[in-house]
Design brief:
Growth Hormone, Chain: A, 18 helices, about 425 residues, mainly alpha, about 75% helix
């Protein structure tokens, strides 16, 4: 699992290798998205509100694990390389899918979420891999392509998961587990290491491998802390749809798992289009800062339309506006990775992962609770989209903060 193994000797790391890994990971992850809430609902006797509350519990547990383990895995990738950490993460995801496939009750689902939260670092480590193999001026475009891998997972995965769930509610998890196992084999036998030994950190510092150490690291590197705040607000807002979309669309529009999967496929197609065809030209014209601000503004408008949408067709018609959000993350990652050297790209992504862990705790708790409360009072409140309105407000805050901190970056140091 290190550079010296015959499986990676003589093979030069390149963007295409990690993109293929991220693509397979996103598809397997996307398969379970429209199905897991309904599996939870089956354990609650069909009670939608109770299922939403259990979704909150699972989301919080996963986020807490990420809060503490994200910095450890990020620094570990700076010390031993990206490839071993990716393999650890993929193994944990495969185990989690098997728990979902065979869990007899909610307790077993809980154990699977804990194991996955302990090891989940595939996307953050892949981002560090991209920074290793891509020149700074090309990173926003490359991160756009990485985002397209995630969007493609939403394009193919939910549609496939919804289709498979029509035959058996557990079948999608078996398929997702199998795809993740194939991805692990790809990582072991094909994926080369991107971080040369001479560019790795000399030791693993436990004092920095924690949430407090991550914040100290961000404060020590110029505007990274402000940019991380923008990223945190983005991640927090972004948890609203994974937290409530399946239950929300079923409640408000009466959509079946199949229709939900097709809707996610359509929005994923829009995301892929923006990230692969538009991010590069737009960043070349308006810069990483402009892309970040455009994404925040478009995402806020899209969430507002989603929350208002009185019919399913109105919701679908709002998707092109929401697709503008896909400019935000490539611009943000491009700005952040320019501010640190190669020896600390993993620590940067680990710090981002830690903040994402906080968002993953607060987001499901906040959005799930608000959604459950809003549908319990729908007869008088008439606002089932209240949680989505809150996500729009968070992106407006991200836009305001981005205007202040997202200026042109200084050149990254050769070593930090």
């Amino acid at each position: 699992m290190t550079d010296g193994t015959p499986t990676t000797a003589g093979r030069k790391a390149a963007f295409g290798f990690v993109f293929a890994c991220a693509l397979m990971n996103a598809v397997s992850f996307g398969i379970m998205i429209p199905v897991l809430p309904n599996l939870i609902k089956s354990f609650t006797g069909g009670d939608t509100a109770q299922a939403a509350q259990w979704n909150v519990v699972f989301g919080c547990v996963w986020g807490i694990m990420q809060l503490f383990c994200g910095p450890i895995l990020g620094m570990l990738s700076d010390r031993i390389g990206r490839r071993p950490v990716l393999l650890i993460s993929l193994f944990g995801l495969a185990v989690d899918f098997m728990f979902m496939a065979f869990a007899p009750n909610l307790a077993w689902l809980f154990v699977g979420r804990v194991l996955n939260g302990l090891t989940a670092a595939s996307f953050s480590t892949a981002n560090a891999y991209v920074a290793d193999v891509t020149p700074p001026q090309d990173r926003a475009k490359a991160f756009g392509w990485m985002g397209s891998a995630f969007s493609f997972g939403f394009l193919v995965g939910p549609a496939l998961g919804g289709f498979l769930a029509e035959f058996d509610l557990r079948l999608p998890f078996l398929v997702a587990g199998g795809l993740t196992a194939i991805n692990w084999l790809y990582g072991y036998f094909v994926l080369p290491e991107s971080l040369p030994v001479e560019k790795r950190t000399s030791r693993f510092d436990w004092k920095r491998a924690n949430p407090v150490g991550s914040l100290t690291f961000l404060r020590a590197h110029g505007d990274l802390l402000g940019l991380a705040g923008v990223g945190f607000l983005f991640q927090l807002a972004h948890t609203v749809l994974p937290s409530i979309f399946v239950l929300y669309s079923g409640y408000r529009y009466g959509w079946s798992p199949g229709i939900i999967g097709l809707t996610m496929m359509a929005t994923g197609l829009l995301g892929v289009g923006v990230q692969t065809l538009l991010v590069g030209p737009v960043v070349a014209r308006i810069g990483e800062r402009g892309a970040l601000l455009l994404g925040a503004a478009g995402g806020a408008a899209g969430f507002a339309l989603y929350g208002f949408a009185p019919t399913g067709w109105f919701y679908i018609a709002s998707a092109p506006v929401f697709a503008l959000l896909n400019f935000m993350q490539p611009g943000l990652q491009g700005l952040m990775t320019r501010r640190v050297g190669p020896t600390h790209q993993g620590q940067l992504q680990g710090a981002n992962q830690s903040l994402q862990g906080i968002a993953s705790v607060l987001g499901p708790l906040m959005f799930g609770t608000i959604f459950a409360w809003s549908i319990r009072h729908d007869a008088t409140l008439h606002a089932p989209g209240l949680a989505i309105y809150l996500a729009a407000f968070l992106l407006l805050l991200a836009l305001a903060l981005g205007v202040r901190v997202a200026h042109a970056p200084a050149p990254a140091p050769a070593a930090a």
